[in-house]
Amino acid sequence: DIQMTQSPSSLSASVGDRVSITCRASQDISTYLAWYQQKPGKVPKLLIYAASTLQSGVPSRFSGSGSGTDFTLTISSLLPEDVATYYCQKYNRVPQTFGQGTKVEIK
Amino acid sequence: QVQLVESGGGVVQPGRSLRLSCAASGFTFSNYGMHWVRQAPGKGLEWVAVIWNDGSNKYYADSVKGRFTISRDNSKNTLYLEMNSLRAEDTAVYYCARTFYVWGTTDALEIWGQGTMVTVSS
After folding, report:
1. For residue B43, how many other CB atoms are within 10 A of its CB?
2. What is the per-residue pLDDT for B105?
3. N or C end of chain A: which has fewer CB within 10 A?
């Protein structure tokens, strides 16, 4: 099975900072990658699908890039409401494995 | 509005069974693949199972294969997860989720339920 590895596991940044999270697949998954945001105590929310397509209603400060095995989620200017854990998930085929998550906090 | 509502969680002894339900509303349930995802306390998300829109195909994570069964009743707009031979490590919040695309199978998960907690403990 394909493994999904996110880095870092956690990060602390200041409001207004540019934040990047990487997700690496152990095999080529083309652009079959989604990013989710899970705020504390809340349900996961789809942010980005097809590696770079922003889900409707998601602020434009979020963006995704990559293809093949290396992917990046970027928050262009971090806001307090972005405090959450972010997960990547591959969906080219089953199992639809998630990355282990990246916890984003405000410094 | 588009909504998924899980039910059936609770406390169960190891080795026993439990059936979760997920009631769908606000969309044509029979047009979408459906997934179960779980999250152990303080841990990350773990994909559990998927069922095609017409129930023709079902796939499972290795950790639940042979113990869990995903099914659906399109006439009742309801998804199920039958969990047998439960273990302590199955303790988690269980979410049902809908695929993004119509006729989607393996797909991004656009709509999520609020989750139902399953605790396996003696």
Report:
1. 12
2. 87
3. C
Give the dihedral of Cα atoms B40, B45, B49, B53; nearest 10 deg.
130
Which of B95, B112, B116 is the best substitution to test chain A (most A C-beta atoms within 10 A)?
B112
Segment A21-46 shows an average pLDDT of 98
pLDDT at A17: 98
Mean pLDDT for the stretch of residues B54-76:
97
pLDDT at B24 over 90: yes
Rounded to the nearest angstrom, the gap between the alpha carbon of residue B22 and the centroid of all alpha carbons in its chain is: 7
Q: Is the pLDDT of residue B104 over 90?
A: no
CA distances from B15 to A103, B12, B18 (A): 34, 9, 10
DSSP per-residue codes, A11-45? EEE-TT--EEEEEEESS--TT-EEEEEE-TTS--E
CA distance, residue B62 to nearest chain A CA (Å): 9
